[in-house]
Amino acid sequence: QLQLVESGGGLVQPGGSLRLSCAASGFTLDYYAIGWFRQAPGKEREGVSCIHSSGVTTNYADSVKGRFTISRDNAKNTVYLQMNSLKPEDTAVYYCAADPRGWCSQFDYWGQGTQVTVSS
Known about the structure:
There is one protein chain. The protein is an all-beta fold. Helices cover 0% and strands 49% of the residues. It has no helices and eleven strands. The strands form two sheets. Strands 2, 4, 5, 6, 9, 10 and 11 form a seven-stranded mixed beta sheet that branches. A four-stranded antiparallel beta sheet has the order 1-3-8-7, with no helix packed on it. The radius of gyration is 13 Å and the shape is globular. The termini are far apart.
């Protein structure tokens, strides 16, 4: 059974950091693009970042550029989202998703989400 599991969320003060993990089970991530998305209460889900299967190409939403970094460790079958300089507006449930085509186009598999709360 293909499964993605996010972890690493929590409560952090503004300006703080968190690292989210997206671990895959039942399949290997090597040939999948992995995207991170988030959804805040009352708002639509938005794309945050994505990394192609090559691991070379990445993209970021303008709102997180320079603060968030996506990376992958295929040996651990895990993708990470390092989030620095967190702001209250980053508060949301964060989801990772997998695109079997490899280039961040269409995501067929989704995790259950992890809550990130940025508050003093």
